[in-house]
Structure formats: structure tokens, C-alpha cells
Design a protein that fits this description.
It is an enzyme of class 4 (lyase). The chain is an alpha/beta fold and 469 residues long. The chain has helices at 17-22, 47-65, 78-89, 102-115, 146-156, 193-197, 204-217, 222-225, 238-242, 248-261, 266-288, 311-318, 325-337, 342-355, 360-370, 376-387, 402-409, 414-419, 451-468; strands at residues 2-7, 28-35, 71-75, 93-97, 120-124. The protein has 3 domains: 2-126, HUPs (Rossmann fold, 3-Layer(aba) Sandwich), CATH 3.40.50.620; 128-159 and 205-288, Serine Threonine Protein Phosphatase 5, Tetratricopeptide repeat (Alpha Horseshoe), CATH 1.25.40; 299-468, DNA Cyclobutane Dipyrimidine Photolyase, subunit A, domain 3 (Orthogonal Bundle), CATH 1.10.579.
């Protein structure tokens, strides 16, 4: 007998519940990835994420081949594709790991109800430490503030041993037909992705190595170093987590294991685990408040007076030509590498939404298209947090000053010089300043906005909706 194992955001072999349980019996496993082009499907990734997916699928297929199996690739609507595979293979079971975006939840519920009429169906948690419905307040309502959410999660328990790599992944005697990964058309016709991917290695093996390297080399200093964009102080695991090349359960378990033998690193390791907690919290919010995909959690922001006719401003921000050095450095880092340092993400988002009054959805859409780690829950949560309309106790007055942030977190201007070469010759004092506040530099744009006046305008508008709400 045969089991279909449908993989999506879980492109790994170890700690993969659907695959693990499929391989526990003597049945053979057909491991399948379906590129579902239907409009409601969350497989509609941005351009950078599609590039990563191409390479991740290749790495997964290579790993399966080492077990004498292979990845079956199909393209089409998920239900009809699975039904066709059931007929072709004679499979009696379908296993998958759950995904939690609203469109996928609705689709998977319908899939399970339909397929149960003809075969055995099981779904598992492979991408979160705990299910979103398991961490609730005493009155069974969801949390909207991180600290009490994380305390509750820690009380339940977040450290669990990950499932091992299967000892065998038996293939049926005859595997069904498969597209090639190239047939999915994930790579662009104009190969802008080649220099971007020169910054990355993809796949489960790389993800595990990167975690171990981070723990041994950077974890002890993580709490402070994570804010310095010029330094390699972060784990850079976000794209690997996004595609499930490594699980949060693995990240937390191995971090705790490292900490047990390296107590000097406790502050950094605890903070790293808490960052995994923020990822959990973003999924908690998206599950319980699915409208936040494109609407604010704080409903008062439905009537906020965002700017009109902001296309030119948005384009300058997208291309790293705002006139604020650290913002432009971050946007260019994103363009060249498909990634941006988290501290800088907050700075660029604050300028766009609060100083320029461009709707947060425009920034979230750009990030979703250009980030290799464009995780829907984390992306939406981050943008709403910075814009002031998300889950936070008192967010509206938090407006990052890009000059002060630059001076504090990139004091030598190393990060700016790396990504904004036209400023490379400026001294450490001037490099943080817009052109109008510095020397007579001509090949760098004037700032898009007056920081002081735009801050006052934002506070006035934010206070207005708070009072009227």
C-alpha cells in the first residue's frame, strides 16, 4: 500500500511529522509538491520567494533520491491533483503538515472533508511550537499583546525533542509521472536572481549548519549584536524557517541543548528563543484575526487619512532613493540580497508609514515580493506593528528617527557604506545625515520629507483617530 505525503511549507526530511508517520509502516511513500496557481492559494509567492522555492525543491529532491525515492512535482488545483495521484498510485492515505494562512486553512478543511470519503487523511503540526488554538487567555480568547502570550506559551512548554530523520523512505515500485522543477517556471526569464542567490545556500543541510554556526559563534552576543546591521549578529534563519527547511521546534531544542553546556550564553540564547516566540505570536494573530492579511487589527485605523497619489514617493522608497542613508542602505540590501536586517526593516517601515503616510499594505506587498523570507504572518505582523495598527499596547507615538537610529546602530557608517557607495567617502559624522544637512554632495538625492514636520503631522493624525475611536 502507498501513502501520499503532500509537502508545502515543510521542505525537509527531519522533524517532518507527515513524512515520519508515513514511513513508520511498511507502506511506500509518494512525496509530492503541488504548485497550485488558484488565486486563493498562498502558494502565490513573490518573485524572490519563488526563486528560493526553486532551489529548495531541488535540495529536497536530492535528499529524497539519497533514500531511493524522489520528489513528485505537479501543477494544478490541489484537490483535483491529489485525487488524480490517488487514482494513479492506488494510495490509501494522504498525510500533510498544516499551514495556517486563512486561505490555506479553508482549502485544507475542504480537502480533508472531501478526501476522507475515499481514503485515510491525517494532518500534523510541523511549523509551529504550539497550535494557535492552544495558547489562549483564561477566558479562552486570543492574546493581543506578546508578553502575556509568551508567558502562557512557556508555561505550556515550548521545548520538545524533534522527530528524527526517517531511517527509510520507501518508494513504490513504479513512481507516478512528475514535472521537472524547472517546468514550474519559478525562475525569472531575465536572470536577476543569480547575484541575489550568490548571498545564500539553500536547503535542510544548510539550515542545520547555519543554526549550529550561529549558536557557537554569535548566540552569546545576540541580544545586543542583533541590532547592529553591519555585523553578522543574527542567525539569518528566516528564509529556512519560511520554507520549512528547519522547524522552530528544531531551533528551540538545539538552542536549549547548546545553552545547557554554555551557560555564559544564556542572555543571548533566551533572546533568540524569544524571537522564535514572536514568530509564533504572528501566527497566533493571523489565525485568530484572519482579516489582518490586508486590514488593520486596530479597527480605528480603517478611517486613518493615508496619503493619496503616493506612487512616486513609494517608488523612491522601493529603489533606495529617499535621501535618508540608512533607509536607502536597507532598501538596496533588500534589492540585492532578498533580505534586510530586522532593525532596518523597522526603520524603513516607520519612514514609509509614519513620515510619508503611505499605507502599510503597500510596504507589505513590496516586502512580500522582494524578500526570500516573505512569511505572510510575520510580514503582516511586522508592518502593522510598525504602522501602529497592530498588536501593541501603545504604538502610535513610536516613530523611528532614521538619523538617530543610524547613529546609534551603525555608528561607523559601515552598513551605509556597504550599500550606498556614493556616500562612502563621507566621514562618520556626515554619513548619517541627509544631503541637505551635510556637505555639497550632488549624486545623492535630497530627503523626501522633513522629519520634524512629518512627525508632528503623523502624531496629530494618529491622536485624532485614538480620540475619536
Amino acid at each position: 500500500m502507498t501513502t501520499l505525503v503532500w509537502l508545502r511549507q515543510d521542505l525537509r526530511l527531519a522533524d517532518n511529522p507527515a513524512l515520519y508517520h508515513a514511513c513508520r509502516s511498511d507502506e511506500s511513500a509518494v512525496v509530492v509538491f503541488i504548485d497550485d496557481p488558484t488565486p486563493t492559494s498562498t502558494t502565490q509567492l513573490g518573485a524572490a520567494s519563488r526563486v528560493w522555492l526553486h532551489h529548495s525543491l531541488q535540495a529536497l529532491d536530492s535528499a529524497l533520491r539519497s533514500f531511493g525515492n524522489r520528489l513528485i512535482v505537479r501543477q494544478g488545483e490541489a484537490l483535483s491533483t491529489l485525487q488524480a495521484l490517488l487514482a494513479e498510485t492506488g494510495a490509501t492515505r494522504v498525510f500533510w503538515n498544516r499551514v495556517y494562512e486563512p486561505a490555506s486553512l479553508a482549502r485544507d478543511k475542504h480537502l480533508k472533508q472531501t478526501l476522507k470519503a475515499v481514503c485515510e487523511v491525517h494532518s500534523y503540526n510541523a511549523s509551529l511550537l504550539q497550535e494557535p488554538w492552544d495558547v489562549l487567555k483564561a477566558d479562552a480568547t486570543p492574546y493581543k499583546v506578546f508578553t502575556p502570550f509568551w508567558k502562557a506559551a512557556l508555561k505550556i512548554g515550548v521545548v520538545q525533542p524533534p522527530l528524527p530523520l526517517p531511517t527509510r523512505i520507501p518508494a513504490p515500485t513504479v513512481l507516478p509521472a512528475s514535472l521537472s522543477i524547472t517546468d514550474l517556471g519559478l525562475l525569472p526569464d531575465i536572470r536577476w536572481d543569480v547575484p541575489m542567490m550568490a548571498h545564500w545556500e539553500v536547503g535542510e543541510t544548510t539550515a542545520r549548519h547555519k543554526l549550529q554556526q550561529f549558536l557557537t559563534q554569535h548566540a552569546a552576543d545576540y541580544k545586543t549584536a542583533r541590532n547592529i546591521p553591519a555585523q553578522p549578529g543574527t542567525a539569518r534563519l528566516s528564509p529556512h524557517l519560511h520554507f520549512g527547511e528547519i522547524s522552530p521546534r528544531q531551533a528551540v531544542y538545539f538552542a536549549e541543548h547548546y545553552l545547557a553546556e554554555n551557560l555564559h550564553a544564556e542572555a543571548g540564547v533566551r533572546h533568540f528563543i524569544q524571537e522564535i516566540g514572536w514568530r509564533e505570536f504572528s501566527y497566533h494573530l493571523l489565525y485568530h484575526f484572519p482579516h489582518t492579511v490586508d486590514r488593520p487589527l486596530d479597527v480605528r485605523f480603517e478611517r486613518f487619512a493615508w496619503a493619496d497619489n503616493y506612487a512616486e514617493i513609494l517608488q523612491r522608497w522601493q529603489h533606495g532613493k529617499t535621501g535618508f542613508p540608512i533607509v536607502d542602505a536597507g532598501m538596496r540590501e533588500l534589492w540585492h540580497t532578498g533580505w534586510m536586517h530586522n532593525r532596518v526593516r523597522m526603520i524603513v517601515a516607520s519612514l514609509l508609514t509614519k513620515n510619508l503616510l503611505v499605507p502599510w499594505q503597500a510596504g507589505e506587498n513590496w516586502f512580500r515580493d522582494t524578500l526570500v523570507d516573505a512569511d505572510l504572518a510575520s510580514n503582516v505582523f511586522g508592518w502593522q506593528w510598525t504602522a501602529g495598527c497592530g498588536a501593541d499596547a501603545a504604538p502610535y507615538f513610536r516613530i523611528f528617527n532614521p538619523i538617530l537610529q543610524s547613529q546609534k546602530f551603525d555608528p561607523e557608517g559601515e552598513y551605509i557604506r556597504r550599500w550606498v557607495p556614493e556616500l562612502a567617502r563621507r566621514d562618520n559624522k556626515l554619513i548619517h545625515l541627509p544631503r541637505e544637512l551635510g556637505d555639497g554632495l550632488k549624486d545623492y538625492p535630497l530627503p523626501l520629507v522633513d522629519l520634524g514636520k512629518s512627525r508632528e503631522r503623523a502624531l496629530r493624525l494618529f491622536t485624532g483617530i485614538k480620540v475619536s475611536g
